[in-house]
Amino acid sequence: MATELHKFPPIEGVRWFNVAVLVLTPLAAIYGLVFVPLDRRTVIFACAYYLFSMIGITAGFHRLWSHRSYNACLPLQIFLMLGGISSVQGSCYFWARGHRSHHRWTDTEKDPYDSSRGLLWTHIGWILFKSKLRSGPVDSSDLGKDPLIQWTHHNYFPLAAFFGYALPALIPALWNDPWGGFCFSAAMRLTIAHHCTFAINSIAHYLGSTPYDDRLSPRDHFLSAILTMGEGYHNFHHQFPMDYRNAYLWYQYDPTKWFIASCKFLGLASNLRVFPSNEIAKGALTMKLKHLKQVQESITWPQAIEELPIVTWENFQEESKTRSLLLVSGFIHDVSGFLDQHPGGETYLTRNSGKDMTASFFGGVYRHSNAAHNLMSMMRVGVLVGGGCPPNQAITPSQVLFVATRQQDDRTIPN
């Protein structure tokens, strides 16, 4: 905890309204768990209202208004707007601008939830405390011109009070459970929705893999996706933010994607934007090659051909009298250390020392496996003068698909 607090920027004050919401709301939920009997109808309603709030954030505030990843008809916009407001996380105008800044300035001091500040700051610290950090500038002109966004922004507090607290408490009152409605449908629902949403700013930048790019902190993880209605495939999302999907693969958990696709089927949504599959595959391949490059660099490879000494036939014959040397594919191999491991026995190698065993190695006696070719290459000690190498045999099977690194050209583009 001390380490996490040390990462905080200098604190200039406390956002007391946010503190009140994020402290009193969980306390009301805890009070309900201790003192208010659970009504099955209230529990069902609370779960349904939770989905309404979360889909308002994920499909509305996030994918529709922050990223414009699809178009929605007015009734769907109103539904999503009210759902997002019911989660009490600020107006859509505030939420979308901040999120665009997060994407534009990821992992920098202009990122409103900069991951380098630690899990505690990214999860909740930036919401509770004032600091000198300011979100980086982004283009939000479309948000400023949207009448629905602007009307709800200017009327956010009464709307949040009604849809966040009053309505979810009033509806259970229809079956005589107003306290259950307030404690569970309102307070507990909000507490869970808050921290599941905040998890995208925190654990989704720390927990998981980076299958598309590892230059920045966003990561993919199934747990994050479970908590956030599919928003946990965060590495994909930061690479392809305009895509209406967070989960690119069909089997990945993304109910928000399924909701948007269903709305399109019903005629409520259109122009669902997807990033070209070919470009997504490039990102995935790049990361796979990067991992393979690391594995490749951890392996010991045969000495480079150009570094091997050139040996005459006479020298080869002379040296083979004191150690077991075989000629295969124009390369001289010292098999002395392999005598007791050779499957065909030590005698076969020693009696053929100083001979060209290329034909035998390639099927005359035994057609050796790729593994044998790879192992044999590690025994190279020279190249025979004038020695002929059969086509495609200079490169070992394990090096045919060798991963190479190319240097980018640093020259500036002329004006």
Automatic annotation (TrEMBL):
Keyword Transferase found: no
Give the note describing cofactor binding and stoichiometry: Expected to bind 2 Fe(2+) ions per subunit.
Key words of the record: Electron transport, Fatty acid biosynthesis, Fatty acid metabolism, Heme, Iron, Lipid biosynthesis, Lipid metabolism, Membrane, Metal-binding, Oxidoreductase, Transmembrane, Transmembrane helix, Transport
Q: How does it sit in the membrane?
A: Multi-pass membrane protein
Broadest EC class assigned to this enzyme: oxidoreductase
Where the record annotates domain Cytochrome b5 heme-binding, the positions are 317-385
What the entry lists under Gene3D superfamilies is as follows: Cytochrome b5-like heme/steroid binding domain
According to its UniProt record, which reaction does this protein catalyse?
octadecanoyl-CoA + 2 Fe(II)-[cytochrome b5] + O2 + 2 H(+) = (9Z)-octadecenoyl-CoA + 2 Fe(III)-[cytochrome b5] + 2 H2O
Instruction: Indicate whether RNA-binding appears among the record's keywords.
Output: no
**Cofactors, names only:** Fe(2+)
Family annotation (Pfam families): Cyt-b5 (PF00173), FA_desaturase (PF00487)
Question: Major place of localization?
Answer: membrane
The protein's Enzyme Commission number? 1.14.19.1
> Do you know which SUPFAM superfamilies this protein is assigned to?
Cytochrome b5-like heme/steroid binding domain
GO molecular function ontology, one term from the record: stearoyl-CoA 9-desaturase activity
Q: Which sequence ranges are marked TM in the entry?
A: 16-36, 43-62, 74-96, 156-175
Q: Which GO terms describe its biological process?
A: unsaturated fatty acid biosynthetic process
CC annotations in GO: endoplasmic reticulum membrane
InterPro entries in the record: Acyl-CoA_deSatase_haem/ster-bd, Acyl-CoA_DS, Cyt_B5-like_heme/steroid-bd, Cyt_B5-like_heme/steroid_sf, FA_desaturase_dom, FADS-1_CS
Q: Give its localization.
A: Membrane
Query: What is the protein's known function?
Result: Stearoyl-CoA desaturase that utilizes O(2) and electrons from reduced cytochrome b5 to introduce the first double bond into saturated fatty acyl-CoA substrates.
The UniProt entry's sequence similarity note says:
Belongs to the fatty acid desaturase type 1 family.
Q: What is this protein called?
A: Acyl-CoA desaturase
Recorded source organism is: Mycena venus
Taxonomy, top ranks, is: Eukaryota, Fungi, Dikarya, Basidiomycota, Agaricomycotina
